[in-house]
Specification:
Elements (H helix, E strand, L loop, with lengths): L13 H6 L49 H13 L3 H13 L2 H13 L2 H6 L57 H14 L11 H13 L24 E6 L13 E9 L9 E10 L10 E11 L2 E9 L5 E8 L21 E4 L3 E3 L4 H16 L5 H14 L9 E3 L2 E2 L3 H24 L1 H11 L11 H12 L3 H45 L1 H10 L1 H15 L2 H4 L3 H11 L3 H5 L7 H22 L3 H20 L9 E6 L13 E7 L10 H13 L3 E6 L6 E5 L6 E5 L3 H16 L1 H16 L12 H14 L30 E2 L7 E2 L6 H4 L2 H9 L5 H15 L5 E2 L8 E2 H8 L25 H22 L8 H5 L8
Parallel strand pairs: 12-15
Antiparallel strand pairs: 1-2, 2-5, 3-4, 3-6, 4-5, 6-7, 6-8, 9-10, 11-12, 13-14, 14-15, 16-17, 18-19
Helix pairs in contact: 2-4, 2-6, 3-4, 7-13, 8-9, 8-10, 9-13, 10-14, 10-15, 13-14, 13-15, 14-15, 19-27, 19-29, 22-23, 23-24, 27-29
Bound molecules: cytidine-5'-triphosphate and magnesium ion.
Amino acid sequence: MPPKQGGQDQDKKPSQRRRRGGKKHPKPDRAASPPPAAPAPAPKEKAPPCARGGRTNPPKKTDPALEEDSDVLLAFGALLKTGDAAACAAHARYEAHEDQARFIEDARRLLAMSAGERAATRAPPPGMAPPPPPGMPGSPRRAAAPAAPHPRSTSPRRPPGLPPGLAPPPPSVDHFPPGLAALALEVHSEAAPPPGLRPTATDDQDVAAALSALIGGPAPEPAKPKFKWVPPRVHKRRGGRVAFSAPDNTKGPLRPRARLDVSWELKVDAEGAVGTRRDVSVGLFRVGAPTNDAAIVAKQGRGAVEEVGLARGTVAFFAPRAAGAFVFRLLDPEPPGRQQISKMERPKASSNVYATSDKLDVIVRTHDDLLDSLKASLQQLEEPGRSRLGALQQLAVVAETLPASLAPKRQTHIGGRAGSTAEKRCRDKLRACLARCLDELAKHVPGPLTLATRRRADELPFHEDETETDVLKRERAWSVLSEEDEQSARDAFEVERVTKIKKQRNEDRRARDVHAACRRLCAAFNGNSASRQWLESAAPEQARRLDDVSTRWDALLEEFWPGGADGVAALRRHYDRADSFFRPTHQPSAQQHGFAWRALDDACARVLPQLFPGDAFFKRREEVRRRVEACLNNADVLGNGQRLVLRVFGSSANLFGAEGADLDMCVVPAEKTDKDLTSPEVCRRMGEALEQAGAKNVQVRDTARVPIVLFEDPATGLDCDVSTHNPLALRNTELLRAYAKVDGRVRGMAYVIKKWAKIRGINSPSDGTLSSYGYILCVLAFLQTVPQPPILPSLQRLDLDWPNPKDPNREPPARMPHPFDPSRDVCLAFHDPDKLGSLKDLREIAGRNRQSLGELLALFFRHYAWDVDYRNLVVAPRTACVLPKANKAELDCWPQNPHLAIEDPFETHYNVAHVLKYDKHQKIRKEFMRASKLVDDAAAQRIDPDLALDYICEPLPQEE
Ligand code: CTP
Ligand code: MG
């Protein structure tokens, strides 16, 4: 049977691909992705014809298109594929040293050489074979090398589903060896800075570079050194720890300028003798600061090797003078005298981040603090070269966190106000600051308005939008020119086209950034009554203008955020300006909502018995598992008569499975073996054996890192999949099962939520929405944190001896190497109440919470609709408490965007919700809002409470 490859089916279930050990990065959707803007031409491939005449560009020694690391990697990948000996050697070196910067330098150098020069460099080291050619067993992928696109085929239109202005999808790296592919994706994701971080001043240079790559002209002299976005990276993972504490041990947010003790720890070479000095640098940064260069303060941290392999030290700090969110980073020591060198000439700070502290929140508590913060924002708004949007954000933080005790005093008599001089000064400063912010916002308001309306009215056509007649006319006009003039005309045309693309991208990005800053500022002043009072009493004129600006921007909300016209249209049809429309006005109370909760509870009691599977469900699956296991063993798929056992994971084993769920299985060798279970060969043999045994729709995905076979069982019609090696999925299935046993409400909620998500079209990772696994993790995190008292603990944090006292001699839980990523390790321990005999105790504790399933369900929808701070927090059932996204962003390079993020309980570096793009996140969030609104409607008797669950789980109209 020929293995089926690629095609649409390949992408049927990305979550499966990942959970079977596929890449952690979302796979680029090759069908939907545009080619990279200006990739380096693949060596030995025909250079793209520049124009109709078929003239080719003269070869260039240094290709400006290779300025970005991601471009270098693309070009290098193509070179590697040709079997170039020097490239293979460079790649082998990289696998040995894993120093990304060094590797990229090597690659850049090689790419600048001619083939002859490269041949003269070192041959591959003995035993280092070039990667096998495409199509051979062991070849990672059969995809073609990325060819440089024809200039005119580079569409300026956004790829479908990509929100305007967002970074382009990752490059196709299918033909790279695994290590290099991971690096390419990593570099790509780093190369795309978060919106607003890349100064617009460089865009002209980008255009020039892109143009020279397109038309082959001489590389233009850059006017200024190109801004290079170097994200804070963790090159040496888990190398250290940095934590801060206030001298009086104050917990929670601190006041500006508060004293802090920062302690740090760093793993050092075992040779370093105990007692020797070891210094580091400790920097205080704004959360998410893109580089280590702009520390608010950086201090030399003197320390010493206190025990073998571990250095420690402490250093004193003061909290910043403005409110905000900050972190400490542990860095390489600064070169002596760096602080004294002027900012312009200062060498770049090290990009090594050994550790990041928890978030340090600074909030104002007195008028003096407030005045200081306002002054800092105003200064930032006035000073040239500093980020105005950053200042707006800073002011928003102050407004969000202003305590009620600082609310302005009421008017005492007409025209006079109570309050101290400090209060008066704050009032003046706030007025000045807001006026300045509004000026800043006003500069942009007409921009997006005109842009959006003009785009809607098709007044901003692109060349691709030209009609065929236009193109013909243009071609005819050019055809009368001399060859040289024609070439110039074409070049000029390209210049104009590329400039337009850049301009549009910048405008969109800028519009989004300004809009976000504006919304945040308005929300901050509206959401905090103390701030609102300040605004109304100190700056009524500015308050009115702020509302006005925000309404104008909000009207355009959907123009900028969701991707593509379809997204906008769908949003309009379903949710008319959803958030302001649905936002509830007050907290639910048992008095008002009790009736609706009871009705919801009754509805769950009616529905759940139909959803819970009976014995037949498990029997049928066990029978299929046995049959498949026998079939694979009979076919000797592991070779040499080696036996295998098939183990079930996912919903067929975690107690959250309903009729119709697929059967997820994975191979475990019956005896210990050295055999590489992930080899494509095993997978292909499994596919053949299953097909011969009559399985239907067999699909072999032997190119995933952990290969998998999908098929339909002919006897039962069950959708099945068998992966070859998936210990983490087996383990997280056990964890979910353990949680399910603690309290009946856990299963009850998960079943209703899974049913709701499926029916509302938000449970399909292949379409960019969340997997069932993701929803279950959300339910667990909710039950751990929201209901009071909580219903679930974190089984991963609960001591193994609980409820007995902790055994002081027990070794800490072991960590083991990650099965697919040797650079990481994982801890698979958790408190399994069933095995440790603590189930009764846990149930008793869960039973102290008397909230009904109906109430919990209502609160769940409300929680994820309104209460979760998606931008700053991560859903993490491992910790059973809030986990700052900033830490994940710094330690595991998670994007600090406003999308739902869920930490995998065991692979803590993995975001289970990573597939969500902004529009899909919005889609899910709006479903939460809709469900929450329906509960509110039921409480207010606007709809029949008995039908609330039916409305919530109402199937989508056909076209959706
Ligand atoms: N899994 C994982 N990581 C993911 C997605 C899934 O480890 N990102 C594993 C989990 O063990 C999960 C299993 O794959 O239990 C199946 O995932 P999924 O299909 O999302 O969940 P099911 O519980 O099987 O749900 P359904 O009933 O919809 O099949
Ligand atoms: Mg499943």
